[in-house]
C-alpha cells in the first residue's frame, strides 16, 4: 500500500526539512571557516614578519597583605586560567621567604641596583594547572618603593599583566587600638603651613592600614605597633602640626626623613623638634635580646648538624654525645626547615641594631658610621651588657 505523509497528523512539512538541512549546511560551513581562520591566526601570531595578534584577556584576583604573626607580606595571585610563570621585581631590598603552600620553582637573576634600579628579580615557574600562587615577602623599614609582579598565563599568544604594590617606609607596622605610654618614648613634632588633608596624605604614604579617605573632624589620632619588634607608635596630627611618639628611635628617624622629604617636594617649610629619651636605647636592646639570642642559637645549631650526621653514619652508638647535641640531631629536619624559611632573620636583627646605633647618634649630631665594624664585632660575640655599654659610651 502506498503511504502518504499527509495522512499522518504529526507529519513534518517538507519545507521545514529543507530549511533544517540548509541551516545544518550553513553551520558546517561556518565551522570550517572558523577552523580556517584559527589556523591562519596561529600562523600569523607565530610569524616574525607582519604578525598581528590581539592580547587575550584574563582576570586576576590579587592581594598584598601584611601578616601580623610573622611580620611578612603575603602576595596572593589567582588567575582564571593556568599560570605559566610570575616574575617578581622590586626597586627596594626585600627578602623572599619560604612558603609551605608554594610549589613553584623559583630562580633568581642577578641585579645591579646602581645601573638598572633592581634589588630583586625572581621568577616563579609554576607546575601544570596551577591557578594560584602565594609569595611571602619581608621588607626593610626605611626602604620604600614599588614591588611589581608580571603574571604570564598559559595562553597563546604569550602575554602578561603587571600588578604593582607599594612598599611603605614603615611597612611592618600595623594599626592597633591601644598605646602603652609607660614605655620610654621619643617624640618628634612637626609644625608648618600644611593642611590636614596634606599631612594625612603623608601619613598614608608612610604607614599601612591607614584609610585613604581623611577621617572626619579637625584632627586625627592613630596607634601602631611593629609586627617585627612589638614597638609602639603614636600619631597625632591636625592642620599645621603633627606629633609622633615611639620607643624605637629608628621609627622616629624614618618618619623625620620621609616627612621632611615630602614637605620639601611641596615646598613647605617645617619646624622640626624632637625629644630623645636615653632610656629608650637599653629598652630597645633588651626588647631585641630574646629574638637575637634565639636566632644566634638557631644558627649555631644548624652549623653543627652536618657534622653530627656524619658522626651518626660512622658511629652506631651516640650515647656519648652531650644531651644538647643529641637533641639537635633528633630535631635536625625541623631546625633546618625553620632556618630555611627565614634565612635572613639574623642579618635583619643585626641591621636593626646597626640602624638604631646610627640613628641614636644622628639625633645628637654625631656621625658614627666608622664605628659600625666595632659594633658588628660585638654582635658576632654577642653579650647584652657589652652591647648596651657600647651604645652608651661617649663619642
Textual characterization of the structure:
The chain is an alpha+beta fold and 395 residues long. It is 39% helix and 25% strand. The protein is built from ten helices and 15 strands. The chain has a six-stranded antiparallel beta sheet with strand order 10-12-13-14-11-15, with helices on one face. Strands 5-6-3-8-9 form a five-stranded antiparallel beta sheet, with no helix packed on it. A hairpin with a 5-residue loop joins strand 12 and strand 13 (232-238). Helix 5 (280-314) packs antiparallel against helix 10 (384-392). The protein is flat, with a radius of gyration of 31 Å. Mean pLDDT is 86; it is low at 1-9.
Strand order of the largest sheet: 10-12-13-14-11-15
**H-E string:** HEEEEEHEEEEEEHEEEHEHHHHHH
**Termini Cα gap:** 124 Å
Number of strands: 15
Low-confidence stretches: 1-9
Count of helical stretches: 10
Keywords:
flat, five-stranded antiparallel beta sheet, single chain, disordered N terminus, alpha+beta, 395 residues
Concise account of the structure shown:
This protein has 10 helices and 15 strands.
Question: What layout of secondary structure does this protein have?
Answer:
Blueprint lengths: L13 H33 L13 E8 L4 E8 L3 E8 L3 E4 L7 E4 L4 H4 L3 E6 L6 E8 L5 E9 L7 E7 L5 E4 L9 E7 L3 H11 L12 E8 L5 E7 L2 E6 L2 H17 L4 E6 L4 H35 L8 H8 L1 H10 L3 H18 L9 H9 L3 H9 L3
Antiparallel strand pairs: 1-2, 2-7, 3-6, 3-8, 4-7, 5-6, 8-9, 10-12, 11-14, 11-15, 12-13, 13-14
Amino acid at each position: 500500500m502506498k503511504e502518504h505523509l499527509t495522512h499522518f497528523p504529526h507529519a513534518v512539512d517538507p519545507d521545514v526539512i529543507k530549511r533544517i538541512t540548509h541551516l545544518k549546511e550553513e553551520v558546517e560551513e561556518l565551522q570550517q571557516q572558523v577552523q580556517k581562520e584559527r589556523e591562519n591566526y596561529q600562523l600569523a601570531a607565530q610569524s616574525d614578519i607582519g604578525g598581528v595578534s590581539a592580547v587575550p584577556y584574563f582576570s586576576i584576583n590579587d592581594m598584598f597583605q601584611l601578616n601580623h604573626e610573622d611580620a611578612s607580606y603575603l602576595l596572593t595571585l589567582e588567575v582564571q586560567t593556568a599560570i605559566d610563570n610570575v616574575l617578581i621585581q622590586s626597586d627596594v631590598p626585600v627578602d623572599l621567604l619560604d612558603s609551605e603552600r608554594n610549589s613553584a620553582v623559583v630562580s633568581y637573576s642577578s641585579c645591579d641596583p646602581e645601573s638598572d634600579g633592581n634589588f630583586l628579580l625572581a621568577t616563579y615557574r609554576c607546575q601544570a594547572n596551577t591557578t594560584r600562587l602565594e609569595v611571602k615577602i619581608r621588607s626593610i623599614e626605611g626602604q620604600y618603593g614599588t614591588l611589581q609582579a608580571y603574571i604570564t598565563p598559559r595562553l597563546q599568544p604569550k602575554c602578561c599583566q603587571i600588578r604593582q604594590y607599594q612598599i611603605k617606609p614603615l611597612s611592618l607596622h600595623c594599626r592597633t587600638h591601644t598605646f602603652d605610654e609607660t614605655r620610654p618614648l621619643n617624640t618628634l613634632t612637626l609644625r608648618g603651613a600644611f593642611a590636614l588633608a596634606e599631612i594625612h596624605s603623608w601619613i598614608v604614604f608612610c604607614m599601612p592600614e591607614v584609610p585613604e579617605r581623611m577621617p572626619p573632624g579637625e584632627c586625627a589620632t592613630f596607634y601602631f605597633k611593629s609586627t617585627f619588634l612589638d614597638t609602639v607608635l603614636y600619631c597625632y596630627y591636625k592642620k599645621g602640626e603633627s606629633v609622633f611618639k615611639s620607643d624605637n628611635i629608628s621609627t622616629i628617624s624614618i618618619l623625620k626623613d620621609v616627612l621632611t622629604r615630602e614637605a620639601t617636594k611641596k615646598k613647605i617649610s617645617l619646624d622640626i623638634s624632637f625629644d630623645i629619651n636615653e632610656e629608650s636605647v637599653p629598652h630597645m636592646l633588651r626588647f631585641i635580646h630574646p629574638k637575637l639570642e634565639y636566632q644566634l642559637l638557631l644558627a649555631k645549631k644548624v652549623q653543627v648538624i652536618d657534622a653530627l650526621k656524619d658522626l651518626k653514619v660512622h658511629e652506631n652508638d651516640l650515647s656519648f654525645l652531650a644531651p644538647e647535641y643529641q637533641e639537635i640531631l633528633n630535631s635536625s629536619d625541623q631546625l633546618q626547615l625553620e632556618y630555611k624559611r627565614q634565612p635572613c632573620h639574623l642579618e635583619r636583627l643585626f641591621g636593626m641594631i646597626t640602624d638604631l646605633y646610627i640613628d641614636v647618634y644622628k639625633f645628637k649630631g654625631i656621625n658614627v658610621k666608622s664605628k659600625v665594624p666595632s659594633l658588628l664585632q660585638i654582635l658576632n660575640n654577642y653579650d647584652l651588657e657589652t652591647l648596651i655599654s657600647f651604645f652608651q659610651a661617649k663619642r
